[in-house]
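re: that chain from earlier
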Amino acid sequence: MTDSKSLSGRIALVTGASRGIGAATAEALAAAGAHVILVARTASALEEVEERIHAVGGTATIAPLDLTEGESIGKLAGAVAERWQKLDILVLNAAMLGSLTPVQDIDPKEFSRLLSLNLLANQALIAAFDPLLKRAERADIVALTSSVGSEPRAFWGAYGSSKAALEVLLGAYADETEYTGRVRVHIVDPGATRTRMRALAFPGEEPNSVKPPEVVARNIVDRLAADAPTGVKVRIEA
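^ sequence. v structure.
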């Protein structure tokens, strides 16, 4: 754990926390003193992240659930409200890549699942946790996006459109909450990062040629600790 406890006393929730950028961000938040709620579908993978956090003196709670399933998000928000009465940090990281294919060949059922997780679940998370975020002295939402959300690329239409919509959604929420002076929105493009999703998208790429997720995690924590403005999109190069 780092000696810096800039986020001490804060409650953070990270989706897609079982691996990659989500797991690295959860561990970095815990290192900075936050208590982290780990959300993903696979309990065993979450337990491994939780154990790593606890092993170095941090604190975490696992919440295994499918964000696209029924009332799961509402129940999660209710549990967080009952235990902590607030939420200081919400990291919207969970996403699926889907098939890289021409627009005319996008499978409607897969596209529906992709939009359900990459877009609709994130709106549902914001809606469910908005009251808890507004109870915090200062709250932050971090949304992970991609360059293909603003720079269309052949065969990336499904994934890219989900990220474009997510950016618009978060930008609107930033405008709507700026008046409070206490809610900040950070739209983060992690750039080329060594993740499972990256490996699926670029199977011939040498993994060590791109940065590890810990670099992205450190940048996110540094941004949360700094006096960063709301609604700004940043790209992490290194």
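The domain at 11-235 is CATH 3.40.50.720 (Rossmann fold).
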